[in-house]
Amino acid sequence: MAQKRSAFNFDKTIWGINFTERGPKSFTKTFKLGPLSQTVNIKLGSGKIRGTTSIPGTGLAKRYDIGDLGALIDRIKSSAGTPDVVPDLPEYRRKPDMWSDDDDGQDQGSSS
């Protein structure tokens, strides 16, 4: 079912977020990478991500679909696993610190 046409039109971009009479529609961010310009556009309603790589001032550009925002977040979460190696930090050690100033460290030198 088609949406009812609004009585007025409104389209304004504030801080990279495109607002229309129906609310926020998309987020756009452009990065300048040397002679190239990279633009990422996220549609807030559907979560689709599109990208554009262009050479500013020439009219040459390549558009492509990056994917879905939900799938991208899942991919990032699955690639960030827990480390298998326990770091050598004081809170991970099992034996007491030999240079400690605590009273517990006085019994270390005596033998039973």
Structural features, described:
The radius of gyration is 28 Å and the shape is elongated. The mean pLDDT is 76. A six-stranded antiparallel sheet has the order 1-2-3-4-5-6. The chain has one helix at residues 69-79, and strands at 11-14, 17-20, 23-33, 36-43, 48-55, 60-68. It is built from one helix and six strands, in the order E-E-E-E-E-E-H. The chain has a domain at 28-71. The chain has 112 residues and is mainly beta.
Brief write-up:
The protein is mainly beta and 112 residues long.
Task: Indicate the radius of gyration in whole angstroms.
Answer: 28 Å
User: Helix/strand/pairing class, anyone?
Assistant: mainly beta
Please give the alpha-carbon distance between the first and last residues. Answer: 86 Å
The biggest sheet amounts to: 6 strands, antiparallel
- Categorize the overall geometry: elongated
Question: Could you state the order of secondary-structure elements as H and E?
Answer: EEEEEEH
User: What is the percent of helical residues?
Assistant: under 10%
| Beta-strand share of residues | 35-45%
Question: What low-confidence regions span 5 or more consecutive residues with pLDDT below 50?
Answer: none
Q: What is the fold's blueprint, element by element?
A:
Blueprint: E1 11-14, E2 17-20, E3 23-33, E4 36-43, E5 48-55, E6 60-68, H1 69-79
Antiparallel strand pairs: 1-2, 2-3, 3-4, 4-5, 5-6
Descriptive labels:
single chain; 112 residues; 1 helix; 6 strands; 10% helix; 39% strand
